[in-house]
Write a structure and sequence with these properties.
Blueprint lengths: L5 E4 L4 E4 L7 E6 L10 H19 L3 E8 L15 H9 L3 H18 L7 E4 L4 H13 L3 E4 L2 E4 L13 H12 L14 E6 L17 E3 L1 H13 L3 E7 L3 H16 L4 E7 L2 E3 L2 E2 L10 H6 L4 H9 L7 E2 L2 H24 L1 H9 L4 H9 L6 H15 L5 H12 L5 H15 L3 H7 L7 H19 L3 H13 L2 E6 L2 E6 L1
Parallel strand pairs: 3-4, 3-10, 4-5, 10-11, 12-14
Antiparallel strand pairs: 1-2, 6-7, 7-8, 8-9, 12-13, 15-16
Helix pairs in contact: 2-3, 6-7, 9-10, 10-15, 10-16, 11-12, 13-14, 13-15, 14-15, 17-18
Amino acid sequence: MAHKFSFYNTLSRTIEEFIPNEEGKVSMYTCGPTVYHFAHIGNIRTYIMQDALIKALEYCGYDVKRVMNITDVGHLSSDADTGEDKMLAGAKREHKTVMEIADFYTKAFFKDFDAVGNKRPEVIEPATNCIPEFIHMVEVLLEKGYAYVAGGNVYFDTSKLQDYYVFSSAIEKEQLAVGVRDDVEEDTAKKNKTDFVLWFTKSKFEDQALKWDSPWGVGYPGWHIECSCISMKHLGEYIDIHCGGVDNIFPHHTNEIAQSESYLGHRWCKYWFHSNHLNDRAGKMSKSKGAVLTVSVLQEKGYDPLVYRFFCLQSHYRKPLEFSFEVLDNTVTAYNNLVKKVEALIAADEKIKAAADQNKEDIAAVLEVIRNSQDIDENVKKEFEEKFADAISNDLNTSMAVTLLYDILKADTNAATKLAVVDSFDKVLSLDLIGHALADDSADIDPELEAFIKDAIERRAAAKKAKDFTTADAIRDELLAKGVEIKDTREGVKWSLV
């Protein structure tokens, strides 16, 4: 029996107990990236919180199947079916083909996605793989009278719905309706301002790079239809949870529900999970501001990607989160202190320390020793695991989960128990504290060599301050000759044995 789980459902605007369509199993769909540019750290925050949700559900006893799309066609620079295709814009910007752009930025996305400890979805489907499914859905919507052809394009007719603004209160509905009427670029082919394109033809964009034959002419799908079709292809007619950022709520997810439920004739998805924005002091993170701050850029600046994950987990997913390097530097200190505490625990348990000494390169082997230790106080472990499950199942309270991590480290119990609980929590937090502790070469360093390294780093810092870079470089070479490599990072000089 799975642990009771509740979270905020955007559709009902309340925290609800989660009851899946099939007991113990969760079908989940998450909107993937539009691969025309790098994913900035605000985008990655959304995927970190979705990853935490998936792992929290699994921790509480659910079997989760997750599907994610890759938008490689059809997403326009305006969500109101106007402007230029983002993929085509990216291709023009970089003088590459659309598919070259898609391949490059898909790989870049997953490099950063993986680096922050995320688990990849079981199914990842590019939109360009599913053109027949898109065409079929459009045909059915036309047959049912929910769509119409105008100006060569196929539009969804929102006037056929009793409630188009399904995510909104009465006041919000009126505000959104006004916003739609004030749309800058009016599409005169639409019957209603809220109607949206299901299939574009050359009458909309003559120079579209990717296009396919269809019953309505050569063209390409609208953005919204891909998520509906890809989820149905892999998860069937009912899905339990649909995830995305708050900027997806309108119009993207609103339009997904409109077309999906009109096509199916029944409710499609009961629970909707949305993460809030990451802001900097200038406002919401955006690709339109110029330079894109990515996880890879943070790495180049010397930050561990898991420190960024830790930064995100300390805030609630429904709250806006403000990023600054000052706060991230404080997070580095906090993360490193946790690693040091875990190092001390490993050193305090004779059997675990022996396993660590013998298996420096095999973290899995050390974890196996920790998990099978005869010294674990099972009552304490169970108590903390129950508190942890309560926290993560209460609207994904990751900040409380992090607090419990600190609580176990200072609890009145032995090292084996503490390490076992840290390992258990990491099934959701994915901070790899034990792995980092085992990888820290400073733990068992010869005291004389450690003193020499510290002195050399101080001498080098003094030489650099005096702008004596020749001496600074010589000290670096001196360290390297002793098998010590140093690296300048934002949080200071790091060293490792080579």
